[in-house]
Write a structure and sequence with these properties.
Radius of gyration: 10 Å
Order of helices and strands: HHHHH
Structural class: mainly alpha
Distance between the termini: 13 Å
Number of helices: 5
């Protein structure tokens, strides 16, 4: 499942995948894979991404039914 919420938040904050990756401590490819739904990030990585985008875990990673 694609992570559209994360991609939208990243674009709204005018942050590139590379910038987000550096802030979260991963590679740009990892961010790309998360957004494409091809990589399931650890809880710590989710927290790092949320901090970088000033969002909560619910904002970016909670799945709606």
């Amino acid at each position: 499942m694609k992570n559209k919420k994360m991609k939208i938040a990243r674009i709204e904050h005018d942050v590139s995948q590379d910038q987000l990756a550096k802030a979260a401590g991963v590679t740009r490819q990892t961010i790309s894979l998360i957004e494409a739904g091809k990589f399931n990030p650890s809880l710590q990585l989710c927290v790092n991404i949320c901090k970088a985008l000033n969002k909560t875990l619910n904002d970016l990673f909670w799945e709606e039914d």
